[in-house]
Write a structure and sequence with these properties.
Elements (H helix, E strand, L loop, with lengths): L3 E2 L2 H9 L6 E4 L2 E7 L7 E9 L2 E5 L6 H13 L7 E5 L5 H4 L2 H8 L2 E5 L12 H14 L4 H10 L4 H4 L5 E3 L4 E4 L2 E7 L8 E5 L4 E5 L20 H13 L5 E4 L5 E2 L1 H25 L5 H7 L11 H20 L3 E4 L7 E4 L3
Parallel strand pairs: 5-6, 6-7, 7-8, 12-13
Antiparallel strand pairs: 1-14, 2-3, 3-4, 4-5, 9-10, 10-11, 11-12, 15-16
Helix pairs in contact: 5-6, 6-11, 8-9, 9-11, 10-11
Length: about 350
């Protein structure tokens, strides 16, 4: 076994398909699960950190009424009201983490902090319609058939961009967040998102890992329509950084708490090495394949035919992330021709 499960109640809830309880997981730290609609992960673990003048939250949860109710109820269990929230530290800008931040801020006056690379750029798509057009072009460019691309767009809520809260504080790697009676260090861990950050409590050797390190699954690391860099290379470097950190317990945003960060990191890195090797082998046997064709062929935890449209979009993005890393290593090359999808080829040693 690579990890020691410390969140036994969370693990039991995961096994039984239920929501875990609100828990005081250590001195001054509460775990508050918020439901996730239509998502196999089922819940987000928001952490309430007791400070001298109230609480700070790590992540905020999905922006809907069930999550808002669960957050208020969880705070009440811990002995607080929503008005007692002083800060919201967001690990990354995905809507299940940033979603309720604006509503918490409005109710409490709390400040919201996010790494600057996850704050929406002013030159990016500003509306759901603009984002949808970019995504559709991206899907077609990488080989998705029209009759597959359209259901993907139809299944996504493109209005999130227009509701996305703006942070009050833009964090940087290594920045120390000083809360009354508690200090956390920002550790920039890009990959799952450009500005994904973990928050490290050195006094307690506790790591709030967001989606960067989870106990059971590897987070999605993908190339999207607006991705300009190599997210998988960044993710693997981020994993290496965490290996040097003294961590007693990992408090992730999904699933359950655990010990054994260094062993878990090595398992995750090995998973990506195996996926890279599999794609390299496929490029040797199917030169000129599109990323969509390769995504249909690689090994997933369940059959491609069972994937929802949104899952197929995620699978394409993950496949592209591995291909981009191989291209950066000069082990693969992409060929772009006018009015054709991008084709991929292996590179002989």
């Amino acid at each position: 076994m690579t990890i020691e499960i410390t969140g036994q109640a969370q693990w039991q809830a995961w096994q039984s398909g239920t929501l875990p309880p609100v828990e005081k997981v250590s001195d001054g730290v509460w775990s508050i699960p918020l439901p996730l609609p239509d998502n196999p992960l089922r819940y987000v673990l928001v952490y309430a950190l007791e400070c001298r003048d109230g609480v700070a939250l790590v992540d905020a949860g999905w922006d809907d009424e069930p999550s808002w109710y669960a957050l208020n109820s969880g705070l009440a269990t811990a002995g607080y009201d929503i008005e007692d929230v002083r800060a919201v530290l967001v690990t990354h800008q995905h809507p299940d983490h940033l979603g309720l931040a604006a509503r918490v801020r409005e109710a409490s006056g709390a400040w919201v902090a996010l790494h600057r690379l996850d704050a929406r750029p002013h030159d990016g798509p500003r509306t759901g319609e603009e984002h949808g057009l970019l995504l559709h072009a991206h899907l077609i460019e990488h080989g998705a058939p029209q009759d597959e691309a359209d259901p993907i767009l139809a299944a996504l809520d493109m209005t999130w961009l227009e509701r996305e809260p703006r942070p009050d504080v833009l964090l940087e790697d290594g920045e120390v967040i000083r809360l009354p009676g508690r200090e956390l260090t920002t550790i920039w861990t890009p990959g799952h998102s450009p500005g994904h950050s973990c928050f490290y409590d050195p006094a307690r050797e506790a790591l709030f890992s967001g989606d960067h390190v989870l106990p059971r699954i590897t987070p999605q690391v993908a190339v999207h329509s607006t991705t300009a860099d190599d997210p998988l290379s960044q993710f693997l470097v981020s994993l290496e950084r965490l290996e040097r950190l003294p961590v007693d317990e990992v408090l992730p945003a999904h699933e359950y708490r655990f010990r054994g960060l260094h062993r878990r990191v090595r398992v995750m890195a090995r998973h990506h090495a195996e996926r890279l090797a599999e794609l390299s082998a496929l490029l040797s046997t199917a030169p000129g394949a599109t990323a969509w064709e390769l995504a249909r062929t690689v090994t997933w935890s369940r059959p491609w035919e069972s994937f929802t449209p949104v899952s197929r979009r995620f699978a394409l993005g993950e496949t592209l992330a591995h291909l981009r890393l191989l291209e950066g290593r000069r082990e693969a090359r992409s060929v772009r021709r006018t009015e054709e999808p991008v084709h991929w080829f292996g590179v002989s040693a």
